[in-house]
Structure formats: C-alpha cells, structure tokens
Design a protein that fits this description.
The chain is of the alpha+beta class and 94 residues long. The protein has four helices and three strands, in the order βααββαα. The longest helix has 25 residues. It is elongated.
Length: 94
C-alpha cells in the first residue's frame, strides 16, 4: 500500500501562496493539509492524484460488492460469466 506524503500549512498560506502550494501538489503528488486555527480544515491535491484516489475508491467499492455477492451465494460458473461478457462485447460464440 502506498502512503501519501503530507504537509501542513495554515489557511493564510493558501491565500498568500496559492501558486506555491499548487506547484507542490502537482510536482510531488503531496497532499497539503490546510489548517484553520491550528486544526485540519481542507486538503489540497493535484487533479491527477485526486483522479487516482477516486479510481482506487471506485475499484474498492466494486470489490466489496463482489465479496458480498460471493458471501450471499450470488455467483455463476466462470465459463458462463465469460460467455456472457463475450456476448455483451460482441465477441460472438466460442
């Protein structure tokens, strides 16, 4: 598992040094935690890192759903599943 590097900056830095914070997020894929009155308030990430995190979360949700299906016995034989997928994708018969 990858651990994201983080740095903490006060909200005044976001107002006064936005370009520096933005560059730090983009170039280092580092999360910048913005504080207000010494407490975490928001997090700034590069758009690319946000997209990667979102994709990982979506995949985890699919895996949790699949695990629930297996536990509930909602499964089908592998060959039947692959045949159905080929048909849906226009791959035709074997």
């Amino acid at each position: 598992m990858m651990t994201m590097q983080e740095t903490i900056r006060p909200s005044a830095d976001l107002r006064n040094h936005y370009n520096e914070i933005s560059k730090q997020c983009r170039e280092s894929n580092m999360a910048v935690i913005i504080t207000v009155n010494g407490r975490g308030d928001t997090v700034s990430l590069s758009y690319e890192e946000y997209s990667r995190m979102k994709s990982r979360l979506e995949l985890l949700e699919i895996l949790v759903s699949a695990e629930e299906d297996v536990k509930a016995g909602r499964v089908a034989p592998m060959q039947e599943t692959f045949d159905d997928l080929r048909a849906m994708l226009g791959g035709g018969e074997n």
